[in-house]
Amino acid sequence: AALYVRANQDCSETASAPPPRRAAQKIVDLYGKPEILFFGPDEGTAEYMDWASSHARARGAFFWKAFTTGKSQSIGGIPHDVFGMTTRSVHQYVLGILRKLNIKEENITKFQTGGPDGDLGSNEILISKDKTIGIVDGSGVLYDPKGIDREELRKLASKRQMINQFDVSKLSEKGFRVLVDEKNVKLPDGRIIDNGLTFRNEFHLEASADLFVPCGGRPEAVDLGNVHRLLDAEGNPRFKYIVEGANLFFTQEARMRLEKAGAIICKDASANKGGVTSSSLEVLAALSFSDDEFAKHMMVRDAANPPAFYRDYVSSVHAVIEKNAELEFECIWREHARTGKARAILSDELSYAIVKLNEELQRTTLWDNVALRKVVLVEALPKLLLDTLDLDTIM
């Protein structure tokens, strides 16, 4: 990761340098103007965000504050896991389904992969009010058909601990926990689990609940070859509603099969945009402020007492994430009702339409219309940022 970051900075700096240096470095610059790079956290790279930003600053990159997102609060970042940014959008899709079907969240059962030790898993536990009956994480399987003790789950989520730390005395007589290193475990119904690891890896294919929220797990854990195991003997889906927090847990073919069977599925590409939205707004603040302003308003030296702007800006980011998620959910729900198309297909079509519109707008001269530009930016930018910096400064 470090070499990748350095290589990108080498290319970016050289491409922005005077022609003699570009020629000396044998860089072909087809863009023709300075380029600003942004890196966001993903699986296994979150720990590099702080280093990469500091490295960009040491190399003199003027955009170092925005070079990486999701970085530590101490250097002006808005860490996704601390503030549950991705979960904010995922949960809006859950609430959207329940709102449309007139169901109270407290009355549904839920199963989730990804446990209380992870970003999505922990925040899903902390934000929800359902009756969670099953959790699968790196340590094993936790299940209780009467509902897993919510306070115990919240305690683990707050400490970011796996379910192997769960107090099993708080399970009902029908509940159980099977860890990956256990063998020959007898379940309350008399079934013997020969291998805890195999049981953990396949439990999502035999569990049932109203709602399934994958917050972790292997990519393509459900594909065309095993999706039939998510259907009961009558061909009905074991999960009525599926909202994808983790990326790529289902293949598109599996989604289509489940939707055909009657499941309501909200695809990852739509449901988990909260993290990307947070990163975009973090970049916006970083590029808008001078270094001194950034230090004053965005750098948190005491987590218990952050700058007032930082605290309120995080709340603004939450509001934007939730509003955008609600709007996209409503769009997909409405178009499904109108056209009958699978929601997974509509999610792709909407994503394509957004990208296409962006490309088309870049080919117009609308940006040159300053009055229109200001109207759009006032509508789009967080009010808090506009109140702190005037629009001309941001532009």
TrEMBL record:
One of its GO terms (molecular function) is glutamate dehydrogenase (NAD+) activity. It comes from the Eukaryota. One of its GO terms (cellular component) is mitochondrion. InterPro entries: Glu/Leu/Phe/Val/Trp_DH_C (IPR006096), NAD(P)-bd_dom_sf (IPR036291). SMART domains: ELFV_dehydrog. Residues 77-340 form the Glutamate/phenylalanine/leucine/valine/L-tryptophan dehydrogenase C-terminal domain. GO terms for biological process: L-glutamate catabolic process. It comes from Olpidium bornovanus. Pfam families: ELFV_dehydrog (PF00208). Keywords: NAD, Oxidoreductase. This is Glutamate dehydrogenase.
